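Is this the right way to post structure tokens for a design question? Let me know if I should format differently. Anyway, here goes:
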């Protein structure tokens, strides 16, 4: 049964007509095509299963063996999601074919039966699909999946898309020329993935899957096999595996399911495989080494030394993977496994919070790529004494293996599990099409059936009724057993120990931890202190758009409310306050970083971190915290029955914050351990340094160094954050499924009861920041591979709510730049796999916006990137893009926002801040028109305004190299 954790969470609702008129398709009845399986026939995905059938799916099987599932779904309106799954991934490759499954993924987009060379991306963009998010593919060890989320669909557009995708799958052009053109792009992707992460990944695979095909088959392949690829060898792999009997097609969307099925049959019915059908290779089983102790069968272990990485330890129990009949009893067992692991992880986390020997520890289980059913334990030692951390983790698990859990422990975890399954049922009517499409291909990949939300809840309730402490103990023992135990230890210091030391530590006997279990503790919201005297409403009325209502309390807190039933079971809450990054002084950098990770874990009122966990049991509550350019925010997705408790937690954090030291110390330790890892790759250096240098070395954007972190203590943390929680007006937004009058009453007792807010200091309100001036390129260095580099170019852009409409037009110009840069760097020079350009237009401050282009590439191609970006900017400031080019850029944007705008989240986000600045509300009216038929003349005007005065640059190079000042001969040239 498809894993619930992969099920959809993103929902939708219709906005008022003044914002969006969704496309309405003409009603039409389509006959069921020939290969649809009859109602009295067991659908192919339910064979050998007693899982109740999800009646909304229509299944079919063609005579050539191709299987499909289709489903009507109008979320978001006007979209159809198509998935084509080929049952072949890296595990199906021979030794001479490593990387071919992934290479084929690229080649199918390069040229095919109905698409000429490099036409796929622009063709899908013209159809409104955004490359990368709407049009994409993935290759795993066991499958390759081609994905298309087609917006603004009608029957003709859907048929055209099915024709194009069928041509890609059935008729790719696998010529020597296309292979030669695509291999450098794949190698660029390999280069960008490579270095530390690739080495660690390979070492982990080789150790944890020793003796199996997984051990030697990284999806990206090897440089030798990729360079040796040609049209003949790639076609041989294609012919062997791209066959109808290896193909499953999933189509879900806002069209009649009979039409969806008919188009699958029309474009795939005549497909025939070439040559005889071939069975999948044997993926192998995990096997213990000869002479291993059956009670503790430690097998392969590895110590992986990487100077830039923090310490981490993984060990696991590996069992053979076997095909199962996907029955209700089987799924009850899977849920009891989940329960057993939740119990252990709760205990491991409690020990880490109390100041244990490890930063984090977690146990998990998975069926990896139809190769092994493994239980993994992963933890990060706090010091070089990893043996002590290993012993502590093993001791907690030893207790779970020796003694059954208490009923109170079980009920706590079961209540948590029930929230997810019950909420899944509540939201079933508005789950998105794309997620249903993904659910089917994922179910096929793990060789299990697919189920409706009600079935998940039914199976959970059945498991809950049957589970006992004794049965959970037995399940736990099964999870932590197997024919072989394997382990890897990543360390920056080779002196930590070798494989023999590691193996000895795993073989040592460990006693069950006597204090691993959490004492029973009942906490109720009813027993918590009031935040203050309930506030009085001083004004209440329409906000001026749709049915949004605005409420103002006598303490100055404002609230925007929209209650609706379009998203059952989902209520969004956001609280905005303060001045964001503007609020900090230069010396606060370390405390900014720690506050982001520990804001709620430091507690509130009478609730410390453990109490917060306890009181949230069985409820859907969130505690997200974010620092914006000019505001702070708390946010959560909750539900109507938990809204009052959610509002209490948020208001209490502002009105009666707590300052527990342990969460801050833990965040400090995590930041110290992670700091050196930033230097391992160009991307890591950008994560650490980009904003700091982009904004002219503004200290508040600096990533805290170990020395800065060493000076941190709880007194300094409180000194920075306490006044911030007291400052600035508070705006509360509640959108979704709830009772408005009850919410108003709760608001008066929570946010209305807060003390009067202190004003934001004048010097804080006056602060502003801008990106650095164009000048010499900022050069930073990484400690990774000599063939890896990164380049960033940035032009100053606008900011503020007053320019939102201009920002939408500038977003179109940004897409034009991005498309041109992608074509230039990827298709012409092969210098980079994924150059991209994005627009940052802050709306909660009046300065600091930017257009940023970024690429990861080889060091020699850094000047190529800068030259091409300069050329593109100069040309756009001289000559406007063509109407066709603008359509390619604007149509995906318009469709993206049209889909996004059908949800409460969009509406809430667009209106935040409008209680103090009505420009945001005015800019929302008719916003989609800003993406319709953009004017070339307007693009020219924007380019001259934002691109003509030079750009800021940053390069990240390997240590010991210098930035080239000339474009290499034969590469893309400025002015070409």
């Amino acid at each position: 049964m498809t894993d619930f954790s992969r099920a959809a969470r993103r929902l939708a609702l219709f906005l008022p007509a003044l914002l969006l008129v969704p496309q309405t398709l003409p009603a039409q009845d389509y006959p069921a095509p020939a290969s649809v399986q009859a109602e009295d026939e067991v659908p192919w995905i339910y064979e050998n299963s007693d899982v109740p059938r999800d009646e909304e799916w229509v299944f079919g099987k063609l005579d050539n063996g191709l299987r499909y599932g289709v489903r009507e779904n109008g979320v978001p309106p006007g979209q159809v999601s198509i998935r084509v799954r080929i049952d072949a991934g890296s595990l199906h490759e021979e030794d001479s074919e490593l990387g071919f499954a992934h290479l084929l993924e690229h080649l199918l987009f390069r040229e095919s039966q109905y698409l000429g060379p490099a036409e796929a991306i622009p063709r899908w963009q013209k159809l409104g699909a955004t490359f990368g998010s709407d049009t994409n593919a993935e290759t795993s060890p066991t499958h390759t999946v081609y994905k298309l989320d087609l917006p603004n669909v009608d029957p003709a557009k859907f048929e055209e898309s099915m024709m194009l995708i069928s041509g890609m799958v059935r008729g790719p052009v696998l010529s020597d020329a296309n292979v030669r053109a695509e291999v450098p792009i794949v190698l660029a992707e390999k280069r960008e993935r490579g270095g530390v992460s690739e080495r660690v990944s390979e070492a982990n695979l080789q150790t944890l899957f020793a003796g199996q095909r997984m051990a030697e088959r990284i999806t990206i392949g090897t440089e030798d096999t990729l360079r040796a690829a040609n049209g003949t060898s790639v076609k041989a792999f294609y012919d062997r595996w791209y066959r109808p009997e290896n193909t499953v097609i999933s189509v879900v969307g806002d069209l009649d399911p009979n039409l969806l099925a008919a188009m699958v049959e029309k474009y795939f019915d005549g497909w025939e495989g070439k040559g005889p059908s071939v069975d999948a290779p044997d993926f192998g089983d995990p096997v213990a080494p000869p002479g291993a102790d059956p009670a503790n069968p430690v097998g392969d272990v590895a110590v992986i030394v990487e100077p830039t990485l923090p310490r981490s330890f993984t060990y696991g129990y590996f069992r053979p993977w076997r095909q199962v009949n996907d029955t209700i009893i089987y799924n009850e067992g899977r849920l009891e496994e989940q329960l057993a692991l939740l119990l252990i992880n709760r205990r491991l986390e409690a020990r880490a919070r109390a100041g244990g020997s490890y930063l984090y520890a977690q146990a998990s289980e998975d069926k990896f790529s139809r190769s092994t059913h493994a239980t993994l334990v992963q933890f990060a030692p706090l010091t070089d004494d990893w043996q002590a951390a290993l012993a502590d983790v093993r001791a907690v698990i030893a207790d779970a293996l020796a003694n059954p859990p208490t009923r109170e422990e079980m009920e706590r975890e079961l209540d948590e599990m029930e929230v997810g399954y019950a909420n899944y049922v509540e939201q079933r009517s508005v789950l998105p099409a794309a997620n249903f499409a993904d659910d089917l291909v994922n179910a096929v990949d793990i060789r299990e059936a697919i189920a409706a939300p009600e079935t998940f809840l039914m199976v959970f309730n059945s498991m809950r009724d049957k589970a006992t402490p004794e049965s959970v103990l037995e399940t736990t023992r099964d999870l932590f057993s197997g024919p072989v135990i394997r382990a890897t230890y990543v360390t920056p210091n080779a002196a930590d120990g070798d494989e023999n030391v590691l193996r000895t530590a795993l073989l040592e006997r460990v006693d069950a931890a006597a204090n691993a279990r959490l004492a029973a503790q009942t906490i109720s919201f009813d027993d918590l202190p009031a935040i203050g005297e309930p506030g009085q409403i001083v004004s209440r009325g329409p906000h001026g758009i749709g049915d949004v209502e605005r409420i103002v309390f006598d303490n100055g807190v404002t609230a925007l409310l929209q209650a609706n039933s379009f998203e059952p079971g989902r209520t969004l809450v956001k609280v905005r306050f303060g001045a964001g990054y503007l609020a900090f002084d230069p010396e606060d950098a370390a405390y900014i970083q720690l506050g982001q990770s520990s804001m709620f874990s430091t507690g509130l009122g009478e609730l410390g971190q453990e109490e917060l966990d306890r009181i949230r049991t069985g409820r859907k509550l969130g505690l997200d915290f974010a620092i914006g350019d000019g505001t702070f925010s708390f946010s959560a997705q909750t539900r109507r029955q938990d809204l009052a408790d959610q509002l209490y937690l948020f208001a209490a954090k502002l009105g009666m914050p707590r300052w527990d030291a342990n969460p801050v110390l833990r965040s400090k330790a995590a930041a110290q351990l992670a700091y050196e890892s930033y230097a391992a790759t160009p991307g890591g250096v950008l994560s650490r340094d980009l904003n700091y240098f982009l904004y002219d070395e503004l200290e508040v954007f600096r990533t805290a160094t170990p020395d800065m972190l060493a000076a941190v203590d709880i007194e300094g943390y409180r000194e920075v954050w306490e006044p911030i929680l007291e400052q600035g007006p508070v705006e509360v937004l509640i959108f979704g499924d709830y009772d408005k009058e009850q919410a108003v009453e709760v608001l008066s007792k929570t946010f209305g009861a807060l003390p009067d807010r202190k004003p934001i200091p004048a010097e804080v309100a006056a602060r502003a920041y801008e990106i650095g001036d164009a000048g010499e390129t900022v050069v930073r260095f990484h400690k990774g591979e000599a063939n890896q580099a990164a380049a960033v170019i940035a032009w100053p852009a606008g900011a503020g709510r007053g320019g939102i409409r201009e920002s939408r037009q500038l977003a179109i110009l940004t897409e034009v730049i991005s498309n041109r840069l992608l074509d230039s760097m990827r298709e012409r020079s092969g210098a980079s796999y994924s150059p991209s350009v994005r627009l940052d237009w802050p709306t909660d401050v009046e300065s600091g916006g930017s257009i940023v282009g970024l690429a990861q590439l080889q060091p020699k191609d850094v000047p190529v990137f800068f030259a091409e970006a300069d050329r593109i900017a100069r040309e756009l400031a001289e000559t406007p893009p063509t109407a066709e080019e603008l359509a390619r850029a604007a149509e995906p944007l318009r469709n993206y926002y049209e889909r996004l705008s059908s949800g409460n989240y969009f509406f809430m986000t667009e209106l935040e801040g409008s209680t103090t600045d009505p420009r945001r509300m005015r800019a929302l009216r008719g916003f989609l028109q800003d993406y319709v038929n953009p004017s070339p003349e307007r693009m020219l005007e924007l380019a001259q305004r934002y691109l003509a005065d030079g750009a800021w640059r940053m390069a990240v190079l390997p240590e010991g190299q210098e930035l080239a000042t000339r474009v290499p001969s034969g590469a893309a040239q400025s002015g070409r």
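Format looks fine. Someone answered above. Worth noting: The longest helix spans residues 328-353. The chain has four domains: 31-268, 298-432+442-507, 525-765, 778-958.
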